[in-house]
Structure formats: structure tokens, C-alpha cells
Design brief:
The chain has helices at about 1-15, 85-90, 130-140, 145-160, 175-190, 205-220, 235-240, 275-295, and strands at about 40-55, 55-70, 75, 100-105, 105-110, 115-120, 195, 225-230, 240-245, 255-260. By secondary structure, it is an alpha/beta fold. Strand 7, helix 6 (about 205-220) and strand 8 form a beta-alpha-beta unit. Helix 3 (about 130-140) crosses helix 4 (about 145-160) and helix 3 runs parallel beside helix 5. The radius of gyration is 19 Å and the shape is globular. The relative contact order is 0.17. Residues about 1-35 have low confidence and may be disordered. The chain binds adenosine-5'-diphosphate and magnesium ion. The site of adenosine-5'-diphosphate has 10 residues, from strand 1 and helix 2.
Length: about 300
Amino acid sequence: MTQFTDALTSASKTGAFPDAQEKPFLSGAAEPRNPQTLPPALEVKGVSKSFTRRRRTTPVLDGVNLTVGRGEFVSLVGPSGCGKSTLFHIIGGLTLPDKGSICMNGKEVTGQRGEISYMPQQPALFPWRTIEDNVLLAGEIRGLPRAGARETARRWLQRIGLGGFEQAYPHMLSGGMQQRAAFLRALLAPQELMLLDEPFSALDALTRGEMQRWLLELWEENRRSVLFITHSIEEALLLSSRIYVFSGRPGSVLHTVDVPFPRPRRDEITDDPEFLRLRRRLTDWMREEQAKSRK
Ligand SMILES: Nc1ncnc2c1ncn2[C@@H]1O[C@H](COP(=O)(O)OP(=O)(O)O)[C@@H](O)[C@H]1O
Ligand SMILES: [Mg+2]
């Protein structure tokens, strides 16, 4: 929570987003006029990180390279403890890498906060703020005019099925509804790159399926650059254009998979023979890695 607010606060301090009055959607970046000439939204270059505790050093990330193009949905899957969340903290500038760098839109931003919009594993809504005020938080910290922002938040809450809950407090909502509100807050934040860390992992299977369809639809309509951590291979295949498969700790990219299904995607693709083939292959890789990390 603190880290999240820190990241937002520093965005306002640096004035990194002067024109970001209302930019929930990728303005023009979804179908870039010259996609070849636009630098990627994110480049992670040779990032390594170790943690030292009680004089014991544990390497957590080892030479990670990955890219998220503008308006691309990219997933990262890997065994638990392989450094995925640590990588997100490094991208968000909350943790410094030992080696390597982070570039966004062609500019080096290693260690800089406030460049991303971040949705953590648990819906980090402030319990003392209403749903609407939680959603407004990102814009508020940056000193945007309140009236317009409130109007936008209300429109969106309606659209994501939370109309009527504007004045409710987080504890009055189900887990799925809280995650939708947290996701909307990330979506309405002005930063172009969204990092989503296992956003659906705490939800039951049915709600999770609904949330995936909901996210897919929303994203296909308003393409943002997304890096998404998930444990679910099916979820990664359904949502992403590309999947990076991580090794066990220390995490590094073992495989890169391009997901060929055209968009808009619908549930039926899960019956496609190519989908089943990719799912099998990814499952085998994940099993191998999990078995290795248990040894
Ligand atoms: N601040 C920290 N200090 C020491 N060890 C840490 C710290 N943050 C993460 N780790 C360790 O790094 C490893 C990877 O953690 P994490 O990035 O959360 O993995 P994942 O998200 O892939 O499950 C774990 O062994 C964890 O204990
Ligand atoms: Mg994690």
C-alpha cells in the first residue's frame, strides 16, 4: 500500500505526466501510425538481483531480458518464488537491480518511481475511502481537477458493473468487485504501462473466469501496454500476445511464446487445437521447472 502511494506521489512530484488529464486509454498508441518507429513501452535489459539476509546471499533474478511493445498484452509465468514480484518492484523503481536497466519509451528509468500504474496481488483499496474515492486516488494525488475526474470515475464504475456502489466502502464488496475497482483505478491512472501482479489469484474459479472475460473485453477496447503475472497458463494464453516463461529461482527467461490467436478473442479459442497444443507445451515446461525448484 505504502509503496503504491509512494509510486503515485513521486509521479506528481516529478510532474512526469503533465498532459495526463484524462488518459485511461492509450491515446493513439493502440494502432500506432508508425509502429516500427515507436520505442517499446518497456524494455528490461539484463536485470539481475540478489538479496542478502543474515550474511546469506540469495540470487533471485539472473539476467532477465523482456520487452512490452506499445499497446501489447504480455504475460509472465513461472514457479512461485522465482522473482516475478521482485521484477515488478524493480520496474516500478521500488527496488534497484544489481545489474541491468529498465527503459520505458526509449528512456532509461531505472530506479525512478511513478512511471507505471500498478495493481498488486491483493486489492490495495484504502478501507476508509469509498469506492469512488479509491478510484479517484491516482488523479487526485497529481492534483487533477476533481469535478471532471469524478464524472469519469462514475461513468466507468457504471460500465464495470459497480454502478450504485460509488459510495460503498471496500469491505461491503465481494473480492471480485474489489478487484474490479482496483483494476479500474490502475486503468484510470495516467501512466501508459500497467503492471498486474496475479490480480485474480485470490478469486474462486467462477469469478476468475468472469474477470478474465471482463478484462479481455475492456483491454481489447482500450489497448494499454500491460505486463501481467499469472500462475494460470490458460489465463496467459487467453489474454496475451506473448508469454515469457521463467525458470525457477534465480528467475530468467527460459522460453518466449508468441500467441497466434487473432483479436477480439472469445472463449471458444480454448477448444482450438493450437490452444491445446500450446497449453500442453507450457504446462510441461512449468512442471519441469517446478520439479527442479523442489530439488
Ligand atoms: N526485500 C527482500 N528481502 C529479502 N528477500 C526477498 C525480498 N523480496 C523478495 N525476496 C525473496 O526473493 C524471492 C523471490 O520472491 P518474489 O519476487 O516475491 O517471487 P514470486 O513473485 O515469483 O513468487 C523469494 O525467495 C523472496 O523470499
Ligand atoms: Mg509474487
